[in-house]
Amino acid sequence: MSKTFDRYASIAFLLIGLLVVIESQRIPDSAYGSSVGPKIFPMWLGVILLLLSLRLLYETFRYKSETASAEKLQYKKFIIILVSAILYAFFLEKIGYIISTFIFLLIAFQTMERGRLLPSVIIAAVFSFGVYYFFAEFLGGSLPGFPGL
Hints:
By secondary structure, the protein is mainly α. The chain folds into 2 domains: 3-62; 75-138, no CATH class. The chain has 5 helices and no strands. Helix 1 runs antiparallel to helix 2, helix 3 runs antiparallel to helix 4 (97-112) and helix 4 packs antiparallel against helix 5. The relative contact order is 0.09.
């Protein structure tokens, strides 16, 4: 990446992390008086985001000078994955978690690395079914499985 992009991204993530930490403090504590309440997880995620963005900001000052052969930004891949993520969110309820996640992962894998279709299909299928089984069956959560079910 470029030094300028990384610097702006680190500042943006720093502000987002700070916002997450501040807003997580507004979540009410548990009714049972436990020290581990519902605000702990988002607060620590915000702290981790703050620390990682500070690290990235620090690293931007240690970069060597930018060369003319900097890596070209891949806008086409970004747009494909962005559109597929939006469509994933739109179709999640309609076609279910397993099918929509499988299709999204397959598109993302093939966008990032063309070819190697069989490993992409296997990884997308195992991840889709595995996460669905773990969350819905093991943890007792609720995800839209298949259409019509």
